[in-house]
Specification:
The complex is a heterotrimer of chains A (about 900), B (about 450) and C (about 160).
Chain A lengths: L4 E6 L2 E6 L4 H7 L23 E5 L8 E4 L10 E3 L3 H15 L16 H9 L22 E3 L9 H9 L6 E5 L2 E5 L14 H4 L5 E3 H5 L8 E2 L2 E2 L8 E7 L2 E7 L12 H5 L13 E3 L2 E3 L1 H11 L4 E5 L5 H11 L4 E3 L3 H16 L2 E2 L2 H5 L3 E5 L3 H4 L1 H10 L2 H9 L7 H8 L6 E5 L11 E4 L2 H15 L11 H16 L3 E6 L6 H15 L6 E5 L5 H7 L4 H9 L5 E5 L4 H15 L2 E6 L4 H5 L2 E4 L8 E4 L4 E5 L12 H11 L8 H11 L21 E2 L30 E2 L49 E2 L25 E4 L14 H4 L8 E3 L1 H6 L7 E6 L2 E9 L7 E4 L1 H4 L10 E5 L4
Parallel strand pairs in A: 1-5, 16-17, 16-24, 18-23, 19-20, 19-22, 20-21, 22-23, 24-25, 25-26, 29-30, 32-36, 33-35
Antiparallel strand pairs in A: 1-2, 3-4, 3-5, 6-9, 7-8, 10-12, 11-12, 12-13, 14-15, 27-28, 28-31, 34-35, 34-37
Chain B lengths: L24 H6 L4 H9 L2 H11 L11 H6 L12 E6 L9 H7 L1 H15 L3 E6 L4 H16 L15 E6 L9 H8 L23 E5 H5 L1 H7 L1 H7 L7 E7 L6 E6 L4 H8 L9 E5 L8 E2 L9 H6 L8 E6 L4 H15 L5 H18 L7 H11 L9 H15 L1 H5 L41
Parallel strand pairs in B: 1-2, 1-4, 2-3, 5-9
Antiparallel strand pairs in B: 5-6, 7-8, 7-9
Helix pairs in contact in B: 2-6, 2-10, 3-6, 3-11, 5-6, 5-7, 10-11, 14-15, 14-17, 15-16, 16-17
Chain C lengths: L3 H11 L9 H12 L4 H10 L4 H8 L13 E6 L2 H5 L2 H12 L12 E6 L11 E3 L2 E3 L7 H9 L3
Parallel strand pairs in C: 1-2
Antiparallel strand pairs in C: 1-3, 3-4
The complex binds flavin mononucleotide (FMN), iron/sulfur cluster and FE2/S2 (inorganic) cluster.
The site of flavin mononucleotide (FMN) has 25 residues of chain B, from β4 and α17.
């Protein structure tokens, strides 16, 4: 889009705006209230609903003007419109009246009530009385699976759902059927929506056709939900969320716009993975060998442990605050990462890659790239939100073609018409088929190690200084050259990889390509990789040895107590292994939010708050530090690990707290390189803010909520750690200076639905007003101008048969996997997969069950053949197949069931 | 039959023999057919054909009357132009009261095919489609046979008659939807999608079928082209009584003595067409008004019968020439019921894309239904008038809804009393808004909204 | 499963277009010509044949008037209900048809012989009212009586 400016006149007022943008966007950016339906900031304009009518005048002399659609009208110098004149107001009101001819007016029983774009627009246009006296059309609803409820009678036929689901997200199983005023939006037949992003329909649909099904089953009105800015901790992307709470339960999760991370959308794991926090069986009390412990006693016991030969092991979701507190208490060398050698290597490679990347690929850099290489990673499973962004990247060439035909980017229908099948080159080189293959320029299947070699071949093709892999297959060599040529020609090249197939060499290869691109004088690429978990990068920043070293210490009897921070060791050691450790150790102190084998084995168990109940800072895949805030205080004695640990410090006469800010200040001083963690969000007293209310100003029944337990209104919890308060007093909204990282809702007068976000953006789809939420940690040592290679040159070719972990959005995250809704999507997939040729070679072409052996351990599993999988590996989703995580990438032996 | 010497004065229908099979390719050639094609290929550059058609002042017969040569001129040409271009003949003809393209296709398919090839040559299209409405089985059969004959004689395919020009022509029969006649919706339909109109720009001449430059012309429009090439622009303009060139296929339906269609000089008056050619009104009936060019044009009244039926004159009289097929309203037919019938059509045929059209026309239909049965309420006429304003040009995504409003708005203007009579006496009107009495007798002409599609969705199958 | 014949015909139509999905309407009509109507299974089969999704084909199939997504009789009677036919006595024609067949619009005779449906203007307005029986257009039905109608329909087994 050009940066030319234009002076336009709206209702007699002159404004200077960017030329060529559409009037609706511009009007919204100027803070005007102009209703719309079919337009969506991420989907562009199609002019279907006719809601955004304004009157356009040829010039100052034109007395009457003509009614046009703001969303379809580009701003040029001298564009002159009225929004408040009688003609356009009549038109806008009429559109609502038409839409309402078939809308059922069932707001009292609608889950969208109070969160409804249609309600907002109806009020905005002043359409209050019904003249339509005839019958309404009715539809039957469908069962769309565990996530999304369907009530078609509420449909206003804005077409946003199909445009989002099909055109934007690439889903194929939702469409529009029928014609005239009998249009139906749904599936060809009842059945689970297949997209990984179906839940966004809930926010995309302006009314209550698509609603959040689990939320509907445990429903609370939007205005009775207590909210705080939070994060999704189900993968390393770190999408920003708004969880909503009532009566101590997290009811739903809505998207929290962050232009750099997740924009307008979440994946279904993030939206529906919340139920673990509401589990009845969650521990609420600390426990010692003799039973329940008061917090003070628990802290004293823990403090006592520290004098002994103690070590700690930390999970990869643990907040930076807890990681720091632990190190401050134990010393860095006594804190281990709960990661096997391969995981550890991946985690460190991730950090290294971030350090050497010329620039890190955030959401806009992914979406706007004009050539991309996806090396090894099935993003739609492992970092789903980024996969959705990558799909958008393929549209860049179409945008360019449209621009040449003088069609602006926002003119969605016309852009697609001009673009047709033209796509920016996306090269996918993965061990198995991905959901993005259909939009890719090339699809290459090879084992992870072979893919790393392909990566080096690309690097070598770009820059002969880079070593070439020996004896690469000619077909791969050809692909390498094609990819190299595309990357070299690109203006905004993009490289993506990740940890999902457990091959650190992919990171090295990616770094080599980045370096080669810089060296050959091409544009410096944006680079990103997806590590395993929400705070993998944060944990790597703090460092520490891994499980192998810890095991050595345990087995050698060099430590007698172990502290486990938010991790289930059984996943690494197996139950038997855990038992062995338990026997070796005198004390096992376990911090966790959920009971599990490790928790059960503990001699000291401390209940931990979930992400919805605690403050903390996580570092996402891109090295972006982001803070989450407690939506509600945890019940019982549960609390954030760092709060427990601060208590322990205090008990030992060492001060880490007492507040979050003090802890972060200590962190910044102790670890200057990580001082950025402190700046992820403003401190509690920043700028003399009044408490930002977690409760909306319409929050109801606070004084009566507990009346059945106690007629005295309980004292609201006091929050000394943050700038937020458990209160409905105070206000936030457009024009207030609440920083984005602290906003507990996007609400503006007249805008109760998620569409209110337009009031908080500097520019539609752009940065939030008030600066970014979260901050990029300065990871690069010195300048990023020149990338450096990671590690040695290309690995050797090999013909070992290895276990290839296939990521799975719904199965891989144990926490999210506790949600019944997510579980409903875990059916099937329990078989091992083999390429038919490999099966043939192994004499397994007809086997339906096989015995798989890794490191001397055996399991029996079903087998399916799959042609769209690399040869020379056994593919399996470890969770669905019930195989140990540690098996990822290990050499395997396969035998037909019953074979010797 | 020997070759024609003097130019015909009814070029379009000259070779049509009512109730007989059309000319096959040999007969057509003997009657002077494919001469225009040879002439164009041999002696004219593509741009010259375009210039000639412009000069002839041929205006589109699909309804909008856009100058054909001008449209062709908008197609990118020259060495840098895209390799593939498309020519589409619009034979959807679903506008109620319109029955002219069918005559041309059933009566003289080779004339149409020759026209396609010449037009394709002019814009340098390499593939053409006839978009034919699905109910025209006979036309489909005849055109398909003619296409095969033409291909057999080397008029279609590669290197036509040694000219180096390639052109392939395919027949697409529609699955039925009035909106398919709208040129951008037609393109969507040809792409195998829902026939939803597209935003302009880009215009089809720049990015149409599959994103390539595309010209959409009405069948009748195209059929004029070979004759213009044969006999020249001056001759063509001379056929007309007005500025708009050529002849026009006019038709009359309704309760006249001899309904039918005739090729007449452009600009013949409505009176002449109705009284002379259609034989005037049936005994005992008086003409009360007429729709000059299909269902989507404004009513004109008996007082306006002398209007010359060409694009400009009818527009000046307050309507549109549209397709030039007149529908007559007599004095014993209820104008309210007739308009209700029209609005039923438009409501059913809305594609469902934009709000005013999708939801506004059905509302108008329901109000009209009440008026027909004397169940109207005070305010209904104002409501209808408001709809005609709010569904007007520019307010909706395409011209379907504005077309739907034309008969309604003009009828309200001319015969308001008829509509007022449908308003129930105050006492009879229920005080509380609710659905109209369900047991009220349904009119015979009522068309139930039962299509074999039935309700879609779960269990609906 | 699409029959070989159907597959051949669809492939031939597919060759007429730049993109496979463009043959969707032809494919639906081909299947319907062979089977009378288009079932859910047929929609899925056509989608597979044209490399697109079932929903995409059904979105098209349900949009158009002449694609039957429910079983119809051996002969479909389309009675024109547009303005010229209406002016010329279509209501009477329809009433006669209802009486003759004993069914209403949208219904099929119990013997599966006829389905009665409305249609928009058949483009034969000068000879209104008109109707389509199968592929045959019947015109000039203004003065038709029950007997003539019965004779006319008797030709359709
Ligand atoms: C709702 C609607 C229906 C139309 N139906 C037809 C039609 O059936 N046949 C036709 O030739 N043009 C029809 N048109 C006009 C076409 O959009 C287009 O203008 C025409 O085909 C161009 O051809 P011409 O320039 O030769 O007239 C229709 C327009 C609208 C808005
Ligand atoms: S279901 Fe919702 S998003 Fe889809 S068309 Fe209807 S109102 Fe719009
Ligand atoms: S938002 Fe402009 S027409 Fe829908």
């Amino acid at each position: 889009m050009s940066s030319k400016r234009a002076t336009i006149h709206i209702d007699g007022q002159a404004h200077e705006v960017a030329a060529g943008r559409n009037l609706l966007e511009v009007a919204l950016e100027l803070g005007l209230d102009l209703p719309y339906f079919c337009w969506h900031p991420a989907l562009g304009a199609v002019g279907a609903c006719r809601q955004c009518a304004v009157t356009q005048y040829k010039d100052a002399q034109d007395p009457s003007g003509r009614v046009v659609m703001a969303c379809m009208t580009p701003c040029g110098d001298g564009t002159r419109v009225a929004t408040q004149d009688a003609a356009s107001r009549e038109m806008r009101q009429a559109v609502i009246e038409w839409l309402m001819t078939n809308h059922p007016h069932d707001c009292p029983v609608c889950a969208e009530g109070g969160n409804c774009h249609l309600q907002d627009m109806t009020v905005m246009t002043g359409q209050a009385y019904r003249r339509y006296r005839h019958a309404k059309r009715t539809h039957r609803n469908q069962d769309l699976g565990p996530f999304v409820a369907h009530e078609m009678n509420r449909c206003i036929a804005c077409y946003r759902c199909v445009r989002y689901y099909r055109d934007y997200a690439g889903g194929e199983d939702l469409d529009v059927f029928g014609a005239h005023n009998n249009v139906y939006f749904g599936r060809a037949e009842s059945g689970t929506l297949e997209s990984h992003f179906a839940g966004n329909l809930v926010e995309v649909c302006p009314t209550g056709v698509f609603t959040d099904k689990p939320y509907g089953a445990d429903y609370t009105r939007k205005w009775d939900l207590q909210q705080a800015p939070s994060l999704c901790n189900h993968c390393a992307v770190g999408c920003n969320t708004y969880p909503g709470e009532r009566y101590g339960r997290i009811k739903r999760i809505e998207n929290r716009y962050n232009e750099a991370v997740n924009g307008y959308f979440l994946c279904d794991r993030g939206r529906y993975g919340l139920a673990y926090s509401n589990e009845a069986g969650r521990p609420r009390q600390a426990r010692g060998p003799q039973g329940p412990l008061r917090p003070v006693a628990a802290i004293e016991r823990l403090a006592g442990l520290l004098d002994g030969r103690v070590a700690a092991v930390v999970g990869d979701r643990v907040s930076c605050e807890s990681l720091y507190a632990l190190r401050a208490l134990l010393g860095a060398e006594r804190v281990f990462r709960a990661a096997g050698p391969a995981q550890l290597a991946l985690e460190d490679a991730q950090l290294q890659l971030l350090r050497v990347a010329p620039q890190v690929a955030d959401l806009p850099r992914i979406e706007n790239a004009d050539c991309a290489l996806l090396l090894g990673e099935d993003l739609l499973h492992s970092g789903a939100r980024l996969g959705l962004a990558l799909r958008q990247m393929t549209r860049q060439r179409g945008f360019a073609a449209a621009a040449q035909a003088h069609v602006p980017t926002w003119q969605d229908q016309s852009v697609r018409l001009v673009a047709q099948q033209q796509r920016s080159p996306l090269h996918i080189a993965t061990p198995a088929r991905t959901g993005l293959d259909e939009v890719a320029a090339t699809q290459t299947r090879a084992t992870p190690r072979e893919l790393a070699r392909l990566g080096w071949a690309i690097a070598h093709a770009l820059d002969p200084q880079q070593p070439a892999p020996a004896a690469l297959e000619p077909a791969l060599q050809q692909v390498a050259e094609r990819i190299a040529a595309d990357l070299r020609a690109a203006q905004r090249p993009l490289l993506l990889t990740g940890a999902a197939c457990a091959e650190p060499a992919l990171y090295a290869a990616t770094a080599a390509i980045a370096q080669a691109l810089v060296a050959c004088g091409a544009e410096a690429p944006a680079v990103a990789a997806v590590p395993a978990a929400a705070n993998s990068v944060g944990r790597a920043l703090f460092g520490g040895a891994g499980l192998q070293d810890l095991a050595a210490q345990v087995e050698a009897g060099r430590i007698d107590s172990l502290i486990v921070l938010e991790h289930d060791l059984a996943a690494d050691l197996g139950e038997a292994g855990l038992q062995r450790w338990r026997e070796q150790l005198q004390q096992l102190a376990v911090f966790d939010a959920l009971p599990g084998p490790t928790w059960e084995a503990a001699t000291l168990a401390l209940p931990v708050a979930t992400i919805f109940e605690a403050e903390g800072t996580l570092v996402n895949y891109a090295g972006r530090a982001q803070r989450h805030f407690a939506v509600h205080p945890p019940a019982g004695d549960a609390r954030a690990s760092w709060i427990w640990l601060c208590g322990v410090a205090e008990a030992r006469g060492q001060s880490l707290g007492p507040t979050l800010d003090a802890l972060l200040q200590g962190l910044a001083e102790a670890e200057p390189a990580l001082a950025g963690l402190r700046d992820a969000a403003p401190a509690a007293d920043a700028g003399g803010l009044n408490a930002v209310p977690r409760q909306p100003h319409r929050y109801s029944g606070r004084t009566a909520m507990h009346a059945h337990q106690d007629m005295h209104e309980p004292r609201p919890p006091i929050d000394l750690d943050t700038a937020l308060g458990y209160t409905m007093e105070g206000a936030q909204g457009p024009g207030r200076d609440t920083p984005p990282a602290l906003r507990t809702a996007h609400w503006a007068p007249g805008w109760n639905s998620p569409q209110a976000i337009n009031k908080f953006q500097q520019e539609i789809g752009g940065a939030l007003r008030g600066g970014p939420a979260g901050c990029l940690l300065p990871l690069a040592e010195g300048s990023r101008a020149a990338a450096q290679t990671l590690g040695a040159g290309p690995p050797e070719a090999e013909d070992t048969l290895r276990l290839l972990p296939l990521p799975d959005l719904f199965a891989d995250d144990a926490l999210a996997g506790r949600s019944p809704a997510i579980q409903a999507r875990q059916q099937g997939g329990a078989a091992l997969r083999l390429h038919p040729r490999t099966a043939e070679r192994l004499g397994l072409a007809t086997a339906s069950r096989v015995r798989i052996e890794v490191d001397g351990e055996q399991r029996e599993r079903p087998l399916t053949l799959c042609a769209d999988l690399a040869a020379q590996c056994v593919g399996a989703n470890l969770a669905r197949c019930g195989l140990p995580a540690a098996w990822a990438g290990r050499p395997v032996r396969l035998r037909a069931e019953g074979g010797a | 039959m020997s070759q024609k010497i003097s130019p015909p004065d009814k070029p379009l229908t000259d070779r049509i023999r009512p109730e007989h099979a059309p000319f096959d390719v040999a007969e057509y050639e003997r009657a002077g057919g494919y001469q225009a094609l040879r002439r164009a290929l041999r002696t004219m550059a593509p741009q010259e054909v375009v210039a000639l058609v412009k000069d002839a002042n041929l205006r589109g017969r699909g309804g909008a009357g856009f100058p054909t040569g001008v449209k062709w001129g908008l197609v990118p040409h020259g060495p840098d132009a895209p390799k593939h271009k498309y020519l589409i003949a619009n034979g959807d003809e679903m506008e109620p009261g319109t029955f002219k393209d069918r005559l041309l296709l059933e009566g003289d398919p080779h004339q149409f095919i020759e026209a396609m090839i010449v037009a394709a040559y002019a814009i340098q299209a390499d593939v053409g489609y006839l978009f034919l409405r699905g109910e025209y089985h006979l036309a489909a059969q005849r055109v398909q046979r003619a296409i095969e004959e033409a291909r057999g004689r080397g008029y279609l395919g590669r290197n036509i008659k040694g000219s180096g020009f390639d052109f392939e022509l395919h027949l697409h029969t529609s699955a039925g939807r009035y909106i398919c006649g709208e040129e951008t919706a037609l393109i969507s339909a040809l792409e195998g999608k829902r026939a939803v109109p597209r935003a302009k720009p880009p215009f089809p001449t720049v990015a149409g079928l599959f994103g390539r430059p595309t010209v959409v012309n009405n069948v009748e429009t195209l059929c004029n082209v070979p004759h213009i090439v044969n006999y020249g622009a001056d001759w063509y303009r001379g056929l007309s009584r007005t500025e708009n060139g050529g002849t026009k296929l006019y038709g009359v339906s309704g309760r006249v003595c001899h309904p039918g269609a005739w090729e007449l000089p452009m600009g013949s008056s409505a009176r002449e067409i109705i009284d002379e050619h259609a034989g005037g009104m049936r005994a005992g009936l008086r003409l009360r008004g007429f729709l000059p060019g299909g269902a989507s044009t404004d009513f004109l009244t008996a007082a306006q019968l002398d209007v010359a039926m060409d694009y400009d004159a009818v527009a000046k009289a307050g309507s549109r020439m549209g397709t030039g097929t007149i529908i007559v309203l007599d004095d014993q037919t209820s104008v309210v019921a007739m308009v209700r019938n029209l609005e039923h059509f438009f409501a059913q045929e809305s594609c469902g894309w934009c709000t005013p059209c999708r939801d506004g026309i059905p509302w108008a239909e329901k109000v009209l239904d009440d008026l027909v049965y004397g169940r109207g309420r005070p305010g209904d006429l104002e409501l209808l008038e408001q709809q005609t304003r709010l569904l007007g040009p520019g307010r909706t995504f395409c011209a379907h809804a504005p077309g739907a409003m034309e008969p309604l708005q003009s009828a309200l203007q001319h015969w308001r009393g008829d509509f007022e009579a449908g308003i129930a006496p105050a006492a009879a009107a229920p005080a509380i808004a609710g659905p109209a009495t369900p047991e009220a007798p349904r009119p015979l002409s009522e068309v139930l909204e039962t299509t074999p599609m039935g309700p879609v969705g779960e269990g609906g199958r | 499963m699409l029959s070989e014949q159907e597959q051949r015909e669809i492939a031939a139509e597919r060759a007429h277009y730049e993109q496979p999905q463009a043959a969707a309407i032809e494919a639906l009509k081909i299947v319907q010509a062979h089977r009378g109507w288009v079932s859910d299974e047929a929609v899925a089969d056509i989608a597979a044949a044209l490399d697109t999704s079932t929903a995409a084909i059904d979105a098209v199939a349900t949009f158009y008037n002449l694609i039957y997504r429910q079983p119809v009789g051996r002969h479909v009677i389309h009675v024109c209900d547009s303005v010229s036919c209406w002016l010329m006595g279509q209501p009477r024609l329809l009433e006669l048809l209802r009486a003759e067949l004993g069914i209403d619009l949208g219904q099929t005779t119990p013997d599966g012989r006829f389905t009665l449906l409305p249609t928009v203007c058949l483009g034969t307005c000068d000879r209104a009212p008109a109707m389509l029986v199968g592929r045959d257009t019947h015109r000039d039905l203004e003065g038709v009586d029950a007997q003539r109608l019965a004779t006319l329909l008797a030709a359709y087994e």
